[in-house]
Design goal:
eight-stranded parallel barrel, alpha/beta, TIM Barrel, 9 helices, 20 strands, four-stranded antiparallel beta sheet, 394 residues
Length: 394
């Protein structure tokens, strides 16, 4: 009797699931709080509320809005909540406060106020999002003092950093202090250079950015790949941003492309390809920002967050189904895969095309080299004489 065992193989270059799970980090700006009832926060593992800034006394504020409803909504839907500090633009008052509070004499008291803010609002961590001209020589000392102050209460610390640039003020020690880094892999092009139209977040740049930060010494399990839920229209002057939702409102067909005339963005296929890349090469995905997605429940099939979730859940479902007698090693797969017990081992792509086969007699292990395959999702089938087997793995 010939029996078959079919299971899913996710070809990963890192042991993602073994390193603490998949992260889906969604930024939620305070100006999106009116959309809380429409947001599927359960599709995220972490919500970064953006942004909080201090006054000169170090008291954090979110432009007069209470974050309590957002924290409650996220936690009810199973997500952890971080407060994201600063942001890409600071008012003159905020900049003056940051410049003052990061100085050595003022820093300890400011850090204690940050910690107390987290405790008061039952937060899970802090995301530091000082960017570009706001990053100065006090950045790394601030991070290195903030880290132990948060850790004393089991609070985590992350940062948002550019896709392919490391601020010279970020020391190796500061970089190592972050539980993970949210790579902002967008804004390669934009309104600051209107004569250079094109995609601002292409797939190939995501590949380059991942390698860039790995070369900076940040391991895969401490990186998330940032994706945009917005785009830029180079067909108007000045160049203007637009939301993914606005494109779907124009035509649902626009959900599946990356360019309409001079409008450049990421559609569902690119977002899903980036999610597969992120789950294979780093620790997950990051989103700027949730409120730019399709929010109408009747159009959920066009949601980018749903598209991400479909990729993530396909992996989680397979992982939970594991435990049969067929054993993959290593798991997740790296450069090769071995199935103990011999037989015929065949790898198929998601179109059902056999991409490689190996047959081994007796009880010797069937071994396949995967070095020629790109990272992605594959189906592996084993045929074996004499006994039934079934398992799932990644």
């Amino acid at each position: 009797m010939r029996t078959r065992c079919t299971f899913i193989l996710f070809l990963f270059s890192t042991l993602l699931l073994a390193q603490g799970g998949i992260r889906v980090v969604g930024y939620l700006p305070t100006y999106r709080f009116d959309n809380l009832a429409q947001l599927r926060l359960d599709r995220c593992t972490h919500i970064n509320i953006a942004f909080a800034n201090p006054d000169l006394q170090g008291n954090l504020t979110t432009e007069g809005l209470s974050i309590a409803p957002a924290v409650a909504a996220a936690k009810q839907q199973g997500a952890k909540v971080f407060i994201s500090l600063a942001g890409g633009y600071l008012t003159p008052a905020w900049k003056a406060a940051w410049d003052t509070l990061l100085q050595p004499a003022r820093r300890p008291a400011f850090i204690q106020k940050i910690v107390q803010y987290c405790l008061t609002h039952q937060l899970d961590g802090v995301d530091v999002d000082l960017e570009w001209q706001y990053v100065n020589n006090y950045y790394s000392p601030f991070v290195l003092e903030l880290k132990p102050a948060l850790a004393a209460y089991n609070l985590q610390l992350t940062a948002a950093l550019p896709g392919s640039h490391r601020y010279p003020q970020v020391s190796n020690a500061a970089l190592a202090a972050f539980d993970w880094v949210n790579m902002m892999v967008y804004d390669l092009r934009g309104p600051w250079d209107p004569s250079n139209p094109g995609p601002h977040s292409p797939y190939d740049w995501a590949v380059q950015c991942i390698q860039y930060w790995k070369n900076q010494g940040v391991p895969a399990n401490r990186l998330t790949l940032g994706v945009p839920f917005y785009g830029y229209d180079f067909g108007v002057s000045p160049v203007a941003s637009f939301t993914f939702r606005s494109m779907v409102n124009l035509s649902t067909g626009y959900a599946y492309v990356d360019q309409v005339n001079q409008r450049y963005y990421n559609g569902i296929p690119t977002i899903q390809a980036k999610t597969q890349l992120a789950l294979g090469q780093v620790s997950g995905i990051m989103i700027w920002e949730l409120g730019q997605d399709v929010l109408d429940p009747g159009q959920d099939q066009y949601s980018l967050l749903r598209a991400i979730d479909e990729v993530v859940q396909s992996i989680v479902a397979v992982t939970e189904a594991s435990g049969g007698v067929l054993r993959l090693f290593p798991n997740p797969a790296g450069d090769w895969v071995q199935a103990s017990g011999g037989g015929e081992l065949t790898v198929f792509d998601l179109n059902g095309r056999a991409v490689m086969t190996e047959t081994v007699a007796g009880d010797a292990p069937a071994v396949l080299s995967l070095q020629s395959l790109p990272a992605g999702v594959y189906v592996v089938q084993r045929r074996q004489d004499g006994r039934a087997c079934r398992a799932a793995g990644c």
